[in-house]
Amino acid sequence: MKAISLLLLTLFLGKSCNPTVQKDIAAAVIQYTANSRGYHLNINVANKKASISQGRGTENPTTEVVISEADWNELVGYFQNVNLKELPNLKDPTQKRFYDGAAIAHLKIRYQDTDYDTVDFDHGNPPAAIEMLVNKIVALAKIEE
Question: Disulfide-capable partner of 45 in 3, 30, 79, 128 (CB 3.0 to 4.6 Å)?
């Protein structure tokens, strides 16, 4: 009986250390947008790359940034902590966007052929459940500047 328990425990722990989690985020596409009258930011994260557009029109082209291994591992950790099914139910902590106090932000994650969307929230003040993920994604755009 101890041998069976040890075998099951070994399999369970071995599976949790498996790098398939990185394959899961590699299969995901994360899109973050923030818009106001004079501000536009669109960041798409997929497969260790980020496509960043900071402005509207052809005069503001999209740039592609390769995400460093350290930043990617950080994103993987934050992605693992996000409950995708709860994204539509997250509450926005502030409503500055209602009076032009902040840009309107939105997070969309496409994972395993399903789209998970948040409600709109203030750029710079995301819901607590996705705060670390959003802040890391926005930091990728600042690296590109």
Answer: 30
